[in-house]
């Protein structure tokens, strides 16, 4: 079987998986795949100029049988002169005490031990025996879950792990090629009966679906592996481009209290970058936490970024708020939003007011009206309502809406508009000198304001505060 090892060595060289002087540890379960990988690397240890070892974990799920797997791996390593690190971890006890999915818990503790060994023994590379059939299974699994487009499109050839790098030298060779190599080399190996249990989706795909695919194309697994490799290269480029573009869009506010960006600038990015920028944005917002970007959360965030009109809020995980006021998008903690109280009363004059809640305001007579770009204009009269004042909401505030017989409580209106509780108390109002509420910026105007020039001699002008706002 000279061809199989040479194919694996060529792949290692092409992908630069191993370098001269690397300390390489094979994750060896004792099954045919990992025994074959350990054998190939041992046969070419000097050629590759690496220091080889093996690591094994007995999850104690199959009693004496899994304990025998451990003894088998240790004996193989002793015969081949390969240092072996092994342990037994009582996964059944962990499941009983903490609950969880058996496969997920097993994987977690297994890799914890792998990284522990890598750090202690100063091992740079962990080699696993995932092959082309595993890649095909993975693509089918993620496709069935509906997450194929959101992940890494299958198993990567290599990836960083705590303590070093995980590499997969077998990823483009088929299970059949490995089995033929094992048979030709007369290698003994262990069988895990759970691999044949129909209780697991992956096993059903392996035993029932993939054989049908191979009837149509015997090289289906290898073709899937090549496809995954090509798509992963495209995804890597797009991920890097998305990261660069997001870094240009996102910035900290001058006060340092929140993160901000432009909805319009986000929309101008290609769709392929937009969907990749959202999980990166979550990583930026939660540097010390892992927050999963669900389909629902992605759709909600995209909906907010889809336009630049009005004011919209979204509760994000871990008490973070996403607020879009016209084009300006802010991300801030609920605590900071609650602390953002401003008890001042600001008189609105003929010059622009200071920014309040993402807007600025001024009042002019109809005779002074001029072109001012992206503004909203409200007409009102009589002059006795002046001056208009910006203040925070008070208990008992009401606004007389058009078409309603009685004034509506501002608090009730803000609940109807789904304004987060932490922002309701501090949201500004525009009131007359008699303290009558005329406008809730970003939401509703009273019946005393109109967009028709025929119904007022004075203008209340509002403008969203952006980098493009007129001076």
From TrEMBL:
Entry EC no(s): 6.3.4.19
Annotated Pfam families: ATP_bind_3 (PF01171), TilS_C (PF11734)
Domain Lysidine-tRNA(Ile) synthetase C-terminal: 388-461
Keywords: ATP-binding, Cytoplasm, Ligase, Nucleotide-binding, tRNA processing
Reactions performed catalytically: cytidine(34) in tRNA(Ile2) + L-lysine + ATP = lysidine(34) in tRNA(Ile2) + AMP + diphosphate + H(+)
Subcellular location: Cytoplasm
Main localization of the protein described in the UniProt heading: cytoplasm
Coiled-coil annotated spans: none
GO MF annotation: an example: ATP binding
Any one GO CC term of the record: cytoplasm
Stored HAMAP family: tRNA_Ile_lys_synt
Domain notes: The N-terminal region contains the highly conserved SGGXDS motif, predicted to be a P-loop motif involved in ATP binding.
NCBIfam families registered for this protein in UniProt: lysidine_TilS_C, lysidine_TilS_N
Membership in a protein family: Belongs to the tRNA(Ile)-lysidine synthase family.
Protein known as: tRNA(Ile)-lysidine synthase
Species of provenance: Planococcus lenghuensis
């Amino acid at each position: 079987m000279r061809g199989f090892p040479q194919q694996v060595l060529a792949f290692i060289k092409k992908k630069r998986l191993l370098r001269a002087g690397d300390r390489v540890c094979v994750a060896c379960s004792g099954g045919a795949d990992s025994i074959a990988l350990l054998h190939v690397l041992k046969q070419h240890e000097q050629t590759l100029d690496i220091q080889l070892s093996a690591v094994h974990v007995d999850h104690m799920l199959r009693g004496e049988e899994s304990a025998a797997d451990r003894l088998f791996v240790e004996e193989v390593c002793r015969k081949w002169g390969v240092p072996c690190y092994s342990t037994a971890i009582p996964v059944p006890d962990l499941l009983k005490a903490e609950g969880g999915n058996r496969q997920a818990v097993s994987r977690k503790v297994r890799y914890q031990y792998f990284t522990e060994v890598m750090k202690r023994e100063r091992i740079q590379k962990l080699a696993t025996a995932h092959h082309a059939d595993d890649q095909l299974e993975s693509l089918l699994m993620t496709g069935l879950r509906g997450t194929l487009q959101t992940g890494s499109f299958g198993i990567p050839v290599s990836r960083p792990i705590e303590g070093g790098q995980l590499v997969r030298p077998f990823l483009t060779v088929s299970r059949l090629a490995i089995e033929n190599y094992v048979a030709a080399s007369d290698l003994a190996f262990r069988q895990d009966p759970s691999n044949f249990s129909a209780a697991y989706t992956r096993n059903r795909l392996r035993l029932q679906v993939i054989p049908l695919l191979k009837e149509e194309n015997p090289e289906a697994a290898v073709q899937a592996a090549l496809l995954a490799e090509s798509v992963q290269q495209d995804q890597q480029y797009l991920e890097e481009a998305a990261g660069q573009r997001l870094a240009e869009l996102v910035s900290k506010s001058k006060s340092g209290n929140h993160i901000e960006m432009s909805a319009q600038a986000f929309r101008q990015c290609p769709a392929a970058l937009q969907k990749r920028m959202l999980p990166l944005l979550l990583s930026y917002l939660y540097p010390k936490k892992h927050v999963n970007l669900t389909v629902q959360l992605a759709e909600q965030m995209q909906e907010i970024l889809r336009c630049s009109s009005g004011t919209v809020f979204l509760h994000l995980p871990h008490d973070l708020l996403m607020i879009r006021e016209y084009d300006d998008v802010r991300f801030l903690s609920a605590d900071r939003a609650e602390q953002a109280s401003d008890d001042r009363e600001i008189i609105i004059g003929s010059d622009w007011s200071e920014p309040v809640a993402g807007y600025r305001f001024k009042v002019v007579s109809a005779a002074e009206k001029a072109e001012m770009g992206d503004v909203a204009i409200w007409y009102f009269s009589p002059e006795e309502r002046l001056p208009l004042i910006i203040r925070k909401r008070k208990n008992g505030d009401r606004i007389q809406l058009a078409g309603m017989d009685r004034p509506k409580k501002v608090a009730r209106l803000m609940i109807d508009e789904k304004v987060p509780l932490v922002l309701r108390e501090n949201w500004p109002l525009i009131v007359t000198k008699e303290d009558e509420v005329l406008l809730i910026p970003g939401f509703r105007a009273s019946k005393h304001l109109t967009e028709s020039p025929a119904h007022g001699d004075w203008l209340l002008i509002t403008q969203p505060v952006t980098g493009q706002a007129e001076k």
